[in-house]
Amino acid sequence: MTPKKAIIIGATSGIGYQVACLLLKEGWTLGIAGRREDRLEAFRQKAPERIYVQRIDILEADADQKLEQLIGRLGGMDLYLHSSGIGFQNASLNPETEIRTLETNGTGFVRMVSAAYRYFRTAGKGHLAIISSIAGTKGLGLAPAYSASKRFQNTYLDALEQLAHLEHLPLVFTDIRPGFVATDLLNNGKHYPMLMRPETVAQHIVKALYRRKRTVTIDWRYRILVALWRLIPRRLWKYLPVKN
């Protein structure tokens, strides 16, 4: 693939940061967005001539306008990667935690992804990718809002793909569904099985983006796990033992 222009939302740490590093090495020009300005500037120093940064909090009402500004500074956008989200184990159903999760993974997600779609609609082409989760496969009792919001993201991308077809737009969509990744998101003292390194996950993601895969579950262990999950009827799923 010819090096192009990508914007990554949520690239100051974790998976988004590692994907940005890989694309940078391969010659891409990047627009990097996140909430922490110090980290944005530190990343920009890696290649000031090919990196543009913008502080964006996806919960702020003008976040979509800031994305448009970043696209303008970048001189266009071929790939949009949404890597901004939160998730918590919340068996106590603390309302603040549940609502914050929904606002970030729902409202903030829609604000940014729909803005990216509108840009690609005008451009007549583009690649829209999101990092969701295997948690969207089934409702997880320890993380209700997180698993529900990830299912929402899966369905939203399905809807955008259909909309693009109705509008005769040759857009590419990629839904990236990792298992547990050792990032700040999971740095909460809880136990998570089969933890993956963000560097390894990023390599899988970049490969999937180049291949323009529609849906990718990372990695092979989680592909098997998800396949087994899908076979479990709802009446039995509620009995599945999980540990906090």
Give a short summary of the structure.
The chain has 244 residues and is an alpha/beta fold. It is 46% helix and 16% strand.
How would you characterize the overall build of this protein?
With 244 residues, this protein is an alpha/beta fold. 46% of the residues lie in helices and 16% in strands. It has eight helices and seven strands. It has helices at 14-25, 37-44, 63-74, 95-123, 144-166, 198-210, 220-231, 234-237, and strands spanning 5-9, 29-34, 51-55, 79-82, 126-131, 171-178, 215-218. Strands 3-2-1-4-5-6-7 form a seven-stranded parallel sheet, with helices on both faces. It is globular. The mean pLDDT is 92.
Largest sheet: 7 strands, parallel
Number of strands: 7
Q: Describe the strand arrangement of the main beta sheet, using strand numbers.
A: 3-2-1-4-5-6-7
Strand percentage lies at: 15-25%
- Helix percentage range: 40-55%
Shape verdict = globular
Which regions contain 5 or more consecutive residues with pLDDT less than 50?
A: none
* Number of alpha- plus pi-helical segments: 8
Terminal CA distance reads 43 Å
**Element pattern in H and E:** EHEHEHEHEHEHEHH
From the alpha-carbon coordinates, what is the Rg to the nearest angstrom?
Answer: 18 Å
By secondary-structure content and strand pairing, the structural class works out as alpha/beta
In round numbers, the mean pLDDT is 92
